[in-house]
Write a structure and sequence with these properties.
Layout: H1 2-5, H2 9-20, H3 30-51, H4 56-70, H5 76-100, H6 105-117, H7 124-131, H8 135-146, H9 150-168, H10 173-179, H11 185-196, H12 200-207
């Protein structure tokens, strides 16, 4: 998903293929297992593409097309090949969009750093030093080009990753808070509600149940 958000097409497909054999069983029927895995993968990648900046209606249109095309396929290799095409198209669109935004190299590198290191303590000063610019300039430039402060962006990325864990894992809320590097579960809950307008528990109750329904 991170590769999709960053528009790295080949990495996204390669990582998805690496995970196929390690995924849990999604159906007692082998063909339905692979079909469910593909549908979930396409849906996740559509979310990641939106987080990478793709307009939601475009991401949903592309994912809906490929999900519908998966339904009649009668072999695992064909299903996974179709899933990979969906990943390729979504990620390529993100890449094209990122290059057309006119965003400065400083801001792009700053955002990429946050997406890669969101599980760690992140210091704007350290990023600025790595870019050989002043923290004040980077902070001002980042807000001008993104419309949010640097810390707001960090929180948004952490909340986004937490939402994935709530929907697609059974991790406890306190484990998720630690995993995405929020200082406490209460602060995690506060930030999650600010950016998603729902509590973490409410989000899990709403979105987790239907994702892995056996076919």
């Amino acid at each position: 998903m991170q590769a999709v958000r960053e528009g790295r097409t080949q990495d996204a497909v390669h990582l998805a293929e690496n995970m196929d054999d390690d995924s849990g069983r999604l159906s007692s029927n082998d063909l339905n297992h692979w079909r469910n895995l593909a549908i979930i993968g396409i849906s996740l990648c559509a979310r990641a593409a939106i987080e990478g900046g793709m307009p939601p209606e475009e991401a949903y249109r592309i994912s809906g097309y490929y999900i519908q095309r998966c339904e009649p396929l009668q072999s695992a290799p064909l299903i996974l090949r179709h899933r990979n095409r969906a990943i390729e198209e979504l990620t390529a669109r993100v890449s094209t969009m990122r290059h057309s935004l006119g965003m400065s190299n400083y801001t792009a590198k700053c955002k990429d750093y946050v997406r890669k290191h969101y599980r760690e303590k992140i210091y704007l000063e350290a990023i600025a030093a790595g870019l050989s610019i002043s923290p004040t300039y980077l902070s001002r430039l980042f807000r001008k080009e993104t419309g949010v402060t640097f810390q707001e962006f960090v929180n948004q990325v952490r909340v986004s990753r937490a939402a994935d864990l709530l929907a697609y894992t059974d991790m406890d809320l306190d484990e998720i808070a630690v995993y995405v590097h929020f200082p406490s579960q209460s602060y995690f809950g506060k930030m999650f509600k600010r950016y998603r307008n729902i509590t973490p528990k409410g989000y899990r109750d709403r979105y987790q149940a239907g994702e892995f329904i056996d076919r």
